[in-house]
């Protein structure tokens, strides 16, 4: 009897500590409060960063060894559940073979090593922060990697005059979601370090939805008839950097890539490697 009494007391205590379920009519009605700009739109201003390791490979994958043995565990690829809905990218057959070749030669070919601006959507999940500036009809996103910047045209712009590393971005609001159509990107950018790629025909529809004071949901739908058999989607959360001194710092990476980009032009390189200088 004593044990039964203790069990009953514990059950009553647990029930008292458990929040009551909302009435059926109120289920899901209490959405989290979000900050709003003076024009009533969600206020996306701030410094944000992705925490998923999607820059290694946007697909689900286990831990992998580094591309060079000398890098050891410090260069190993962390495991990830991926950010691609459904897990697989719908490559056309020839494009899939190209992706496999890219992966096999990723250490030499990845444009990140050459300090190329990352393009969209890769810039969003690079392991460095980004900052959104929003004021009325003006929205701009700055990225710490390569100090890349892009303007989101919120009014009807003229057609893109040429292709851009960060694309041509045209935005609009759908309710509380900022929707951005990105076109005219250079085909030299990749989607990650695993050689997932696109052509110059890539079209990206981004969706930025504020979930609360410190969380922003990012979604991107990719279409490219030269590379993919159908549109496909990625999604991931962005987290606000809440340090009191948070700011984007300078990451001008060209000096770090000069040998990769221009080393073959350096006078006397052949002599240094044991050959004859031209």
Key attributes of the depicted protein:
nine-stranded mixed β-barrel, 22% strand, 5 helices, 278 residues, single chain, globular, alpha+beta
Could you explain the architecture of this structure?
By secondary structure, the protein is of the alpha+beta class. The chain has one domain (about 45-265). The protein contains 5 helices and 9 strands, in the order αβααββββββββαα. The termini are far apart. The model is unreliable at about 1-25 (pLDDT under 50).
Question: Short description, anyone?
Answer:
The chain is 16% helix and 22% strand. With 278 residues, it is α+β, with helices and mostly antiparallel strands.
Topology:
Layout: H1 2-17, E1 46-49, H2 93-104, H3 106-109, E2 130-135, E3 138-143, E4 149-153, E5 168-174, E6 177-183, E7 203-210, E8 215-223, E9 232-240, H4 254-262, H5 269-272
- What is the radius of gyration computed over CA atoms, rounded to a whole number of angstroms? 24 Å
Q: Mind summarizing the main beta sheet?
A: 9 strands, mixed, barrel
Helices and strands: which structural class?
alpha+beta
- Which consecutive residue ranges, at least 5 long each, have pLDDT under 50? 1-26
Secondary-structure element string: HEHHEEEEEEEEHH
Q: What is the terminal-to-terminal distance?
A: 97 Å
Into how many domains do the coordinates divide? 1
Q: What is the strand arrangement across the widest sheet?
A: 1-2-3-4-5-6-7-8-9
- How many helical elements? 5
What proportion strand?
15-25%
Counting DSSP E segments of at least 2 residues, the number of strands comes to 9
Quaternary form: single chain
How much helix is in the residues? 10-25%
Shape field:
globular
- Mean of residue pLDDT? 88
